[in-house]
Structure formats: structure tokens, C-alpha cells
Design a protein that fits this description.
single chain, 154 residues, alpha/beta, Rossmann fold, 57% helix, globular
């Protein structure tokens, strides 16, 4: 079993066909027993990505409704959600002051950093931060996180 924290750029691939989608679908399948973590703001970012695809014509209205339904179902049954609170917001603020991060990327990164200590003490489960954003991945690595990019798994 592995624990994965998926940012929005990685999670969208579970629902919309892109480079890395098959790999993300494989590791997020319920039968794997993997732990899946997301930040609360991921809901907004993923819905935004779906809506953009619908506006651009790569998702039909029916497809849009279906992927939202699937995402909502998985949110309720598979993902452990990291809530945005004052401590997390403060840490995200520190990160944008230290690194060239967009605001939501800083919240994603602060969320996985919040989880990291719980997995650092156990040898049986490792925490991997999944992002398709190379800049965010580089910053995460600099902060000591294990990362992987779904785009490297076509």
C-alpha cells in the first residue's frame, strides 16, 4: 500500500483522458488499497478544469455531468480530504513568500507538507506527491517530498 497526495493536475487525469490517465486510474483504483489524499480546494480546481474542457468542446454536456458525478462519488468514498484552516493557510502564505508558487499550488503543497510527518516515521507506507506541474514538483523535491509526475507514465 502506498499513500498518494494528488494535486488537481494529477487528479484530473483520472476522469479525463490525457497523458498519464491510465497510470493514475491504475493507482487510484479501489482494489489497490492505496490511500488517496486531496486538498479541499481540489474540488474547485478539478471542476474548473472540467468546465474549461466543456467550453472548449472536448467534453460534451453529458460527459461533463458524468465526470462531475464520478468525482463527487469518489470524493465521498475514496479521498481523504485535507481541510483548509488557519494553520494551513498560514503555511501556504509562507510558501508563496519563499517560492514562485500560485496561490492554490501553495495550498496543495502546504497540505501535503502537513501530512508528511505522519508518514516519515513509518517504513510500511510512503507518501508520494503526484503533480503534473514540473515547477511544483521541483519545489516539493527541494522540501524533501517524494514526488511523481503522471506525465512520465504515458
Amino acid at each position: 500500500m502506498t499513500a498518494y497526495f494528488l494535486d488537481s493536475s494529477a487528479l484530473v487525469k483520472r476522469y479525463v483522458s490525457e497523458t498519464g490517465s491510465a497510470w493514475v486510474q491504475q493507482i487510484t483504483a479501489p482494489q489497490t488499497g492505496n490511500l488517496l489524499f486531496i486538498a479541499r480546494i481540489t474540488w474547485v480546481e478539478v471542476i474548473s478544469a472540467f468546465a474549461r474542457r466543456q467550453r472548449e468542446g472536448s467534453l460534451t454536456s453529458a460527459d461533463f455531468a458524468q465526470v462531475i458525478h464520478e468525482f463527487r462519488s469518489d470524493l465521498n468514498t475514496q479521498y481523504q480530504v485535507i481541510e483548509l484552516d488557519a494553520t494551513l493557510a498560514e503555511r501556504a502564505g509562507q510558501l508563496v513568500n519563499q517560492y514562485p508558487l500560485r496561490a492554490y499550488d501553495a495550498v496543495q503543497l502546504a497540505s501535503v507538507l502537513l501530512l508528511q510527518p505522519a508518514f516519515a516515521t513509518t517504513q510500511s507506507t510512503q507518501l508520494i506527491f503526484l503533480t503534473a506541474d514540473d515547477r511544483l514538483s521541483a519545489i516539493a523535491i527541494a522540501l524533501g517530498l517524494l514526488t511523481d509526475n503522471p506525465n512520465h507514465h504515458p
